[in-house]
Amino acid sequence: MNRFTDKVAVVTGAAQGIGAATAHRLAEEGATVAVLDLDADRALATAQEITAKGGSARAYGCDVADQDDVESVFTKAAADFDTVHVLVNNAGITRDGLFFKMPRNDWDAVLAVNLTSAFTCAQAAQTYMVGQRYGKIVSLSSRSALGNRGQANYAAAKAGIQGLTATLAIELGPYGINVNAVAPGYIATAMTAATAERVGSSAEEHQRLAAERTPLRRVGRPEEVASVVAFLASEDASYVSGQTLYINGGAR
């Protein structure tokens, strides 16, 4: 498929995990991808992997929690590629801990990177999307939006993504912009491996226990989330907006 031929996509947090898988998927389908990550060298590695496969990508270092940095990077990307058609708000961090002893800076950091950055990046992207009366914004929520012990900050941020998504769909829809979110369950990534370490488990054991609680009896892969993001960012989902799609193997 070449659903993104002549389209420019910006993917945040694209150095690893779901972000990298999404950048690869969009490039494989014809998009020119702006690979954003806090670590510019790691962003470059993803971009080079894409170009080595015949795709088109360019790397940008960006602290998505810094509004000035976001605005600067979007200006650079738009200058390099003329515009922005697709934005994937994937950047995220965890600072897990029980609510009663969670430091305020852990709360602030997780809200800034996981939620406020989606607001800031969407605001920057819509500058180009509104003018061309076309755009696709897909943000990463999480199963944790429904509540998860030890993740008051992360759960609040990911629930906020769902509210932000629904509201942006209302406000940007008249300009031909679709806004949606995906909410992954347990996906085998560096972030979930870090969660396993936090609770004193190995990644393998943590995944095994999660699989036992999942109807499909396995955990998800980053590529499986990327495929759904690509669908929502494509014209195949042209009448889908304001939705959060859970990708969790049937878990309840």
Q: How is the biggest beta sheet arranged?
A: 7 strands, parallel
The portion of residues assigned to helices is 40-55%
* Unreliable stretches: none
CATH class: Alpha Beta
Query: Could you report the average pLDDT, rounded to the nearest whole number?
Result: 95
Q: Treating each run of at least 4 consecutive H or I residues as one helix, how many helices?
A: 8
Rg (CA only): 17 Å
Shape: globular
Would you identify the CATH architecture?
A: 3-Layer(aba) Sandwich
Given the helix and strand composition, which structural class is it? alpha/beta
What is the helix/strand order? EHEHEHEHEHEHHHE
The CATH topology comes to Rossmann fold
What do these coordinates show?
This protein has 252 residues and is α/β, with parallel strands linked by helices. 48% of the residues lie in helices and 15% in strands. The chain contains 8 helices and 7 strands. Strands 3-2-1-4-5-6-7 form a 7-stranded parallel sheet, sandwiched between helices. The longest helix has 29 residues.
